[in-house]
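Illustration 12: Diaminopimelate decarboxylase.
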Amino acid sequence: MYLHGTSHINVHGHLEIGGVDTVALAKEHGTPLFVYDVALIRKRAEQFKQAFEHEKIPYQVAYASKAFSCVAMYQLADELGLSFDVVSGGELYTAIKAGVPMEKVHFHGNNKSRQELELAVKSGIGCVVVDNFYEMTLLEEICTAHGKTMDVLLRITPGVEAHTHDYISTGQEDSKFGFDLTNGQVDEAIKLSLKSNTMNLLGIHSHIGSQIFETQGFVMAVEKIFEYIEHWREKLDFIPKVLNLGGGFGIRYVDGDEPLHPREYVSQMTQVMKQYAEQFEMAMPEIWIEPGRSLVGDAGTTLYTVGSQKDIPGVRHYLAVDGGMSDNLRPALYQAEYDGILANRAIEQADQKFSIAGKCCESGDMLIWDLPLPKANHEDILAVFCTGAYGYSMANNYNRIPRPPVVFLENGEVQLVVKREEYEDLVRLDVPLTKTVKL
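Figure caption equivalent — predicted structure in token form:
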């Protein structure tokens, strides 16, 4: 059993997180329930920041909010001194409602709409990470119409592929994201940006993938970028003031996952950058990174109630819970693996294996295969670990299942930050027929 953050087994044999008994928590708030260990989020944010402070270089740590977005999470990230990476108008609107400083918001995405970019410009965000030529034209038009200027980074594909799952590897040349570094697109984008009266080109953005357990990919991305910086300086009179190396830092989901300490990622990236800056006799660029999963992933736990069981002798023992792919899509989408325990019987010997099935009407709605547990009973509370990233943010209403609530736990205190959806919420936007429709 591997317990993250403040998690431990209390004197009652129950899983406790943030000083709160999860069994009592499930009774009070119901299940499924997303639980966040705020102390662990604070610790991770501080580790990234301290790593940069140790290197004595200018930096920004921007929370990649696609991992988990809600008003309270943006407010917590602001309290922790982080910037914000948003990828949609909805995330931007949530940040606005949270009251965070707009100048600390960076807007990503490969197909930002006119409406989204207008919201970004009007709200005075700090930076747009421009992804393509179409977006450059849109942003130019919008800034001109509103008499505004905008700091921008150009997202590039450096041709570096992280050692990760194909579906979440985004830095290679064949990608829907960014300007290609090797075919002249980046040079053209730099020229257009430098000629613009509304766009202030700060630098370059690169993201090589997700759930990365080594530093070599980041080092290679830096090396690839610096191969071109000398060319940009000589031919285009452009030296990046900012290099954003994205995120993708891995976490431990199951045995065999071996993430590095934040300082190792930061140290390797900054050391190679310092060497190149000295070699090229240029000022050290400001480094931006965008951790998301590594800030909130293993700080999150989902609590479920055990329902039906199906034992197929000699084949498999299925254990069904009251959630599934409606609150954790990653196993179905990525074949992602998770670990878990019975929160109400955490000290009992796990001498049987159960495959954890969700309640959606899909044979692929399986959360965990062959999870060691004690003999499970109806109404037991199953805790699935490391669901803090891409759990609630990917939650959906398939089968018209309401999305779970979210609570923050810290120092024995519980704060409800997202309410449980009710059935009425599921039909709130439905418009009933007022007359018979003829086909």
